[in-house]
Write the structure tokens for this entry.
Amino acid sequence: MIDLESRKKAAEVTRRFVAGQITNFELENKFPVSQDLAISAIEDTLWCFYDDFEEHTLCGKWQISEDVKSVMKRWIIFLYSQENYVWPKISRPGVRPVAYGLLGKLLNCNKRQDDFLASGDICFWPFIDEQSYENAKKNPALLAG
């Protein structure tokens, strides 16, 4: 299910957070709740880039690299697209693959991650593959009038 209104709100809040315009607490308070799986997957992944206890922007000691910003921009493009989110459910999908230790292996986390990674091309997450990413770039929602 695609929730266009919530995706638009999530894209704007994410864009402002990545640009250092709002804090992590503002991100959490403004991020929409939706049944759209893309929204929860991106929110869950964003959590990896901030502190739950200290209010901050992505500046100074919390500044992210241009490479990470580029990846996050792809997430924003996805949120503005009308692409279906078709990846299987897994925690923090945008920072996969994760190296698992002994406990993770005992809990069969490797198998779950392997199944997740086999579902599409992780280099283009949250898009399922390069073609869906290229389609979204060719038809940008913000420039569509």
Remarks:
- The mean pLDDT is 92.
